[in-house]
Design goal:
The chain is about 50% helix and about 0% strand. By secondary structure, it is mainly α. Strands 1-2 form a two-stranded antiparallel ribbon.
């Protein structure tokens, strides 16, 4: 079943996650116990815990409604730049390098363009690899703690029943954003490794015909990766902001590791 459990409890409350997928196997969420895996630098999956997302509400003056309306409004007036950012950071599984692979690809580009020692490369890959691995453990731990529904479910229920996200909604709970958590962790580690103002050009999608994108820093790229998920209609803003914060926490734990005696 490729990570999808055969059974999973049905939504128990209005805010609970429900599948938006057409595929039969994706009626249950992907890897619901991933947050229980043993991390590299965190003591356990909830070591970088998060506050709860905004309280679920259908009232137009509530924060939850306003965050959903933001996703809806942005999708209705998408600029060419927002569209380009959405596609560039899509990183869909089975169709791309995936989110962690994208960041590993960035580091590979940097090492290719600025050769360094084997020891330095080994440390860079080790720290980045542990960062994105722990980030997804922490993120999945929180996702299944809060079990929040996706924008597409809420917007179709409350705002516009005909609306669909421009990106395919992933088959697991919304909060926090995995892209944001692992990008925040990657940016934290790479900033410590290469510098706070390390400018680079991301050529991940050159072979796909997408224009390369330039960034002033790793956090510049991480913030763009995060907001791409709002542009694509698959995350609320709180999931992005809190995910980046969670990633910063994870990255700090990786940075504290002593890899040399």
């Amino acid at each position: 079943n490729i990570g999808f459990p055969l059974t999973y409890p049905k939504a128990s409350s209005p805010e609970s996650w429900v599948s938006t997928a057409a595929l039969g196997m994706q009626q249950t969420p992907l890897l619901p116990t991933w947050g229980d895996n043993r991390p590299f630098a965190m003591k356990r999956g909830d070591a970088c815990s998060l506050p709860a997302p905004p309280a679920y509400s259908t009232a137009p003056d509530s924060l939850f409604y306003k965050e959903a309306l933001e996703v809806y409004t942005v999708s209705k007036a998408m600029t060419p730049e927002q569209g380009a950012i959405t596609v560039f950071w899509d990183d869909s599984a089975m169709l791309s390098m995936t989110p962690p692979g994208h960041w590993v690809g960035i580091l590979t580009q940097i090492f290719t363009e600025s050769p360094t020692t084997f020891e330095r490369m080994a440390e860079g890959y080790a720290r980045l690899g542990m960062a994105v691995a722990d980030a997804f453990i922490g993120c999945w731990n929180a996702k299944f703690e809060f079990n929040l529904l996706r924008p597409q479910t809420y917007i179709q229920r409350v705002i516009d029943p005909k609306w669909t996200a421009s990106l395919i909604t992933p088959p697991f709970p919304e909060y926090p954003s995995g892209h944001s958590t692992q990008s925040g962790a990657a940016a934290t580690v790479l900033t410590a490794f290469l510098g706070a103002n390390y400018a680079f050009t991301d050529r991940t999608h050159d072979e796909d015909g997408l224009e390369a994108r330039g960034y002033k820093s790793f956090w510049d790229a991480a913030n763009e990766a995060g907001i791409s998920r709002l542009y694509g209609g698959i995350h609320f803003r709180s999931a992005i902001d809190r995910g980046l914060e969670q990633g910063r926490c994870v990255g700090a734990k990786i940075n504290a590791l002593q890899l040399y005696r």
